[in-house]
Specification:
The structure is a single chain. By secondary structure, this protein is α/β, with parallel strands linked by helices. Helix 4 crosses helix 5 and helix 7 packs parallel to helix 8. The chain has one domain: Histone deacetylase domain (Arginase, Chain A), CATH 3.40.800.20. The strands form two sheets. The protein has an eight-stranded parallel beta sheet, with helices on both faces. Strands 3-4 form a two-stranded antiparallel ribbon. 37% of the residues lie in helices and 15% in strands. The protein binds zinc ion. Zinc ion binds next to loops.
């Protein structure tokens, strides 16, 4: 059995988004329940959150943006940058705790104390741009983790796999012109799909050209198409790139019971994805893989999805 970290902290529930918003604290309760009822809590190493040092936040976001976010929370603004980004006075602190917890998970994996980890955090991160909040996201959790791996641990090949049903525009843009971070995303596109980026022909820019890959999936499609595209686009690309560490933007909103998309994935498809990512991590990255929660809004399905996800991290 692997040594798997599980980042969860009750304080992640203090980020409140108001009525009628799908990104609610109950998502984390559902995930925690799934892992507890699956009798996995005894098998994982618990990681509790700690606030991130601002220098890591600033390795991705402009200091002006971080300050503006903090000030908006202090002033009790209800949104930041977009009506989607509903927040409360605690949101800034919670976002810092999310980043800090993830960096701690990554640190423990790099230090050899853990093999891998799942980070059940809020708010999510992959839509956040360097100086703009978007799509329920404030700080780009996974992008900051990639920077931390580069700067603190000297890695030169970080692979990011984003299987949330929405394109991670923020993560892609942050690493657009960099060859040392490979960003792969599979998502619904183009019809009715937020945020509208992530086309097949977006490959990155300059020195980063060829280190971005997108697999757009048409609405209504399901497991077979999703798996076929990952087989075609992700696995050969990472076989060439040979990531030293794999970061996962784990979004479960492509599930057939999730109202946030028109993609119809089964619970089993998510297990297939994770098993394949684990195999890839074993092959190229000495097993080092840290998965970070993005979307996933079906409170009925999140328990089983989280339980399976962690079980696969534990069993390889
Ligand atoms: Zn999503």
């Amino acid at each position: 059995m692997k040594r798997t970290g599980f980042l969860y902290d009750d304080r992640y529930r203090l980020h409140k988004t108001g009525p009628y918003h799908p990104e609610v604290p109950e998502r984390l309760e559902a995930i925690y329940e799934g892992i507890r009822n699956g009798e996995l809590l005894e098998k994982v190493s618990r990681i509790t959150a700690l606030p991130a040092e601002l220098k890591w936040v600033h390795s991705v976001h402009t200091p002006e943006y971080a300050k503006r976010f903090e000030a908006a929370c202090r002033a009790r603004h209800q949104t930041l940058d977009s009506p989607d980004n509903q927040m409360c006075p605690e949101t800034y602190e919670v976002a810092l705790l999310a980043v800090g917890g993830i960096l701690e998970a990554v640190r423990r994996v790099m230090a050899g104390e853990l093999d891998n980890a799942f980070c059940a955090v809020r708010p999510p991160g992959h839509h956040a741009e360097t100086s703009r909040a978007m799509g329920f996201c404030y700080f780009n959790n996974v992008a900051i983790a990639a920077r931390y791996l580069q700067k603190q641990w000297g890695l030169h090949r970080v692979g990011i796999v984003d299987f949330d049903v929405h394109h991670g525009n923020g993560t892609q843009h942050i690493f657009d012109d960099e060859p040392e971070v490979y960003y792969y995303s599979i998502h619904q596109h183009p019809t009715f799909a937020y945020p509208g980026t992530g086309r097949e022909f977006e490959y990155g820019r300059g020195a980063g050209y060829g280190f971005t890959k997108n697999s757009p999936v048409l609405p209504g499609l399901s497991d077979d198409d999703w798996m076929r595209l990952m087989e075609r686009d992700l696995f050969p690309a990472f076989a060439d790139f040979k990531p030293e560490f794999i970061l996962v933007s784990a979004g479960f909103d492509g599930h057939r019971d999730d109202d946030m998309s028109d993609i119809k994935l089964s619970t089993e498809c998510y297990s297939w994805i994770m098993r394949r990512l684990m195999a890839m991590a074993g092959e190229y990255a000495s097993g080092r893989i840290v998965s970070v929660l993005e979307g996933g809004y079906c409170l009925k399905r999140l328990p089983e999805l989280a339980r399976n996800h962690v079980e696969i991290l534990l069993n390889g």
